[in-house]
Amino acid sequence: MFETNLRSEVWSAHIGKALGLDPEPIEREVRAALADSRTRMSTGGRTAGP
């Protein structure tokens, strides 16, 4: 599993660089998605809201 994740990360970085993408906004989106996922896991899938 770790090797697969690492391989995907390296490929993604190279593809993004080749396409001229700025990694900062992508990284912010990834961090937000991870935070949301962690919140959902810790609350058993329940989220705050209406």
Structure description:
With about 50 residues, the chain is mainly alpha-helical. The model has no long low-confidence stretch (mean pLDDT about 90). Helix content is about 75%, strand content about 0%.
Structural category is mainly alpha
Average pLDDT across residues?
90
Radius of gyration from CA coordinates: 15 Å
How helix-rich are the residues, as a percent range? over 70%
Low-confidence stretches: none
Number of helices: 2
Strand content: under 5%
Order of helices and strands: HH
Shape annotation: flat
Largest sheet: none
Question: Termini separation (Å)?
Answer: 37 Å
Extended strand count: 0
Keywords summarizing the entry:
50 residues, mainly alpha, 2 helices, 76% helix, 0% strand, flat
Write the layout of secondary structure elements.
Elements: H1 2-19, H2 23-42
Structure described in brief:
With 50 residues, this protein is mainly alpha-helical.
